[in-house]
Amino acid sequence: MTTNSDTNGSAPTPQELREQVEGTREQLGRTVEELVSRADVKTRAGEKADAMRSQVQEAAGQARTQAQHTAGQVLRMAQEKTPEPVREKAAQAGHQLAGVAGSVVAEVREHTPEPVREKADRALRTAAPYRGQILTAVTATVLVLLLVRRARK
């Protein structure tokens, strides 16, 4: 650092020395803080992980939206191309299946151990928010299978 004493050739005064020391300490403090922030790998990794997590969540949301849209289009196309008698048969089969499924569920519940029932109930609660998408996918699958079966005959 350049001081007035440097220009006139005399030794720096104690006040000038204190100012130099204080300036050097401040500069050293900033340097140490910068080095600590660079060396704090855990924090930097956490920040990168947070950024990646938000990117993945956004991509998953977009993929979910696209899948729902595509499933809806497939269902509409299948419904448009399926003749009315086939759709009626599918609806009847669905109602029959629901009745049989209800009795099977009751029988299975009666013979299933409690821990297994608890896990199954937890799985059902997890799937409940996606009931519409699941039903859409199942319906589309049934319609496609009926179309394939019909085409083979």
What is this structure, in a nutshell?
This protein has 153 residues and is mainly α. The chain is built from 6 helices and no strands. The protein is elongated, with a radius of gyration of 36 Å.
**Strand coverage percent:** under 5%
Count of beta strands: 0
What can be said about the biggest beta sheet?
A: none
Radius of gyration in whole Å, from Cα?
A: 36 Å
Ends distance: 95 Å
Q: List the helices and strands in order.
A: HHHHHH
Can you give the helix content as a percent range? over 70%
Class computed from helices, strands and strand pairing = mainly alpha
Q: Mean of residue pLDDT?
A: 84
- Our count of helices gives 6
Q: Poorly predicted ranges (pLDDT <50, ≥5 residues)?
A: none
Shape: elongated
Overview of the molecule:
This protein has 153 residues and is an all-alpha fold. It is 89% helix and 0% strand. It contains six helices and no strands. Helix 3 packs across helix 6. The chain is elongated and about 110 Å long. The N and C termini lie far apart (95 Å). The model has no long low-confidence stretch (mean pLDDT 84).
SSE topology:
Elements: H1 4-8, H2 14-39, H3 41-81, H4 84-111, H5 114-127, H6 131-152
